[in-house]
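Sequence only, no structure available. Ideas?
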Amino acid sequence: MYKLFIVDDEKLVVDGLKSIIEWEKHQIEVIGSAMDGTNALARILALKPHIVMTDIRMPGMNGLELIQHLREKAPDIVCLIISGYSEFNYAKSAIELEAIDYLIKPIELDEIVKSVKNAIVKYEKKQNEKKSESLLKHSDFISQSLFFDLMMGRRIIEDVTFGAESDNYTAVVAESTSRYWEKAIQRSDVPTIIAEYFHERGFQAFTYIYQTSLLLLCSYQRGRNINVADKLRNALSGIHPLLENVMPEYSMGEITMGVGKTCFRVQDVHDGFKSAREALKFCQYTNKPITFYHEMVLAEQHQETLTVEAIVEHYCEIQGFHAFELYSKIDQLTGFSHQSMLKPTKLREIYFHLINVIFTTVIHEYEVRLETVLGERFEMYDKLNKMISIDEMGRWMKEQVEKTDEYLKSLKSSYKEKLIHDIKLFIQRNDSKDLKLNDIADQFNISPAYISSLFSKTAGMTIVDYITEQRMEKAKDYLRNSNDKILKIGEMVHYDNQRYFCQVFKKYEGLTPSEYRQKHGL
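Reply:
I predicted one. Tokens follow.
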């Protein structure tokens, strides 16, 4: 049974959640509840539930603060949020705190159960990752096993060296987009092949497989007065062709490598490994094959002069929704991000702002909400937060602009078609009046020039031609079914001059009114 703890300052909600849902049927036991964050924290730490379901706004400690404390003191617990508030700041904070879900009251019972089950899946995944990490096979060599523990931060020792000449240690983390990557690096001969490759280039290298990453711990063996970074970069550049040559049956895809800061004490190897992982994330973000940690640090120092406000002002200010203009701005922002190596957090914040600008602009211009097309804003923010590269963010943002543009075009098209239909109907129902273009424009509160242009483009004829067509069809009906004089029929369809009426009729029908009557009359 999985243990669930409920936190909400409304007793009715707590009692309802406990009693209405048949938790045992889902292998879940509600082991406790609380009505404020402070009391909840103490009870949760004592009872050790697997899942915590919490409200946000509560007296004392709120739900977000509670989750923050649990992340620090009980990281295995999976949290989900139920709230009556859908503000973006709450949703963003929930995403940053890794809450499994954010449910807005009122909530369907099935939705609650589904979210709790998702929390169980996440809990099990966490436990499995911990097990796989602890069961990870180490090399048979004591030194290699020892260094892996040092990289993972599992051991603290006073001193150890690779060998007599070793006084530098550089961690490298490599990953690939290839679906064959994990299978390829799991091959038993890969560590030996890589070790021999680095040995030929003056390095001693220990190779490890950790989850989906290839880890290297390298030490340069040929003296101190050497630019180790350049030597290592050259060696790493050959990893991709080496693996593809050894395993031609596998496509290696794009291999990205993060290189940590070089450590000169073995006690600092764990910090070197952490810096390598940071460099890898930045490497994937900027779509570069190799990134050294010191390069990332230099880029971040340069960015201290770049404020988000200044970038937003340059790239996010728009005058109305124009897809082409937005595509251009996104392309410019993508290029600028690559050039300046803009931090992921800053780029996401800029795109968050651009999303809000687009939503606001569309509401103002078209009086429609984009949530039905693009989803809720916090869902978009969640998707953006999961993206790891500059180009991926740019492509996704352009897709949202394209969806919006297509939606607005469909709205414009349906609006125009309805307007033309209404204009035609108005003309038909007022055929007894001598309608002018200004009369129609006044009726629909649109300028004569716009209504004339729109009608021509949409209906395939001018509005004057359409009025003439309606008058001629009515005149034909009179000619067929009455004995009225031609002069009178012309007047009935708003032509006071008989000669002009006959000219217009012949141009329209190919016959004079008299000829038409002789051919089709009673």
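The chain has four domains: 2-134, 142-296, 306-408, 430-520.
Hope that gets you unstuck.
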